[in-house]
Amino acid sequence: MIEILNPTELARARESGALVGGILRALKERSTVGTNLLDIDRWTRDMIDAAGAKSCYVDYAPSFGNGPFGHYICTAVNDAVLHGMPHDYRLADGDLLTLDLAVSLDGIATDSAISFVVGGASLPADVAAESRALIEVTERALAAGVAAAGPGARIGDLSHAIGTVLGGAGYPINVEFGGHGIGSTMHQDPHITNTGRPGRGYRLRPGLLLALEPWVMVDTDVLVTDADGWTLRSATGCRTAHSEHTIAITDDGAEILTLPR
Fold it and tell me: Record-annotated residues binding a divalent metal cation 2 (predicted)?
């Protein structure tokens, strides 16, 4: 299903996106050395409830997961990159943490992810540099994908822009999981791989919402699944990073919805 939102729905999407961005900003500020992942999940639940919104994750049970997910946010640490299930773990100095959040407010879902290093004073210089490079390349790839989006562009143009940045930096690119359409539900068509050929795929129209989410692993494109049935990790144990925004296609370009106000 591909949805095209009307102006009233787009206004609601902006509110939903601002909520997601604000929650992620607050969680980043509160996530320090010693913070338990289960506390992050609890804080997320409290902020979603306070806003009168709904979690897109608690009852999420796709074919690839061991659902329902049962938590309010994905918390992926170091070699985990996608669908990180919160568990009883306290963040250590230098951990690379990814927070991925999708929320529905007034019937419109938005989705965003951020990666950052917790503390870092004790992190070896080479690992610190590697972590910064990972995070930075996903952010640059995301910006490239947004810049390529607009009415008349094709999905392949966005994929190509993202993949050019990721591949140009020397990172392997996994195409199993990527961006997606979003709207009244969290995951919709079209699928947006993190590399691709320009000029191919669905032509973008004003009112379309897309979640773009470049992610990389240092030295592999192979994922392995934890015993929890959800958390996806790098097959080699290398570090990972993930950046994501929900955007709206407008008459003259693309608008990022998931920035905090």
Answer: 111, 180, 213, 244
Is residue 9 marked as binding? no
180 labelled as ligand-binding? yes
- Determine how β-strand 215-217 pairs with β-strand 240-242: antiparallel
Report d(CA 181, CA 165) in Å as an integer.
22
Domain boundaries, the chain: 7-256
Check the annotation: does 111 bind a ligand. Answer: yes
The pLDDT assigned to 145 comes to 98
In sequence order, what E strands does the chain have? 54-55, 74-77, 80-82, 96-105, 108-117, 179-181, 188-192, 209-212, 215-217, 223-225, 232-234, 240-242, 245-250, 253-256
Predicted TM-score (pTM) of the model is: 0.96
On the CB side of 180, how many CA atoms lie within 13 Å of its CA?
Answer: 18
160 a known binding residue?
Answer: no
pLDDT one-digit tens code per residue, 10-63: 999 999 999 999 999 999 999 999 999 999 999 999 999 999 999 999 999 998
Binding residue per annotation — 41? Answer: no
Q: Does domain 7-256 sit in CATH 3.40.1280.10?
A: no
Q: Is 100 annotated as a binding residue?
A: yes
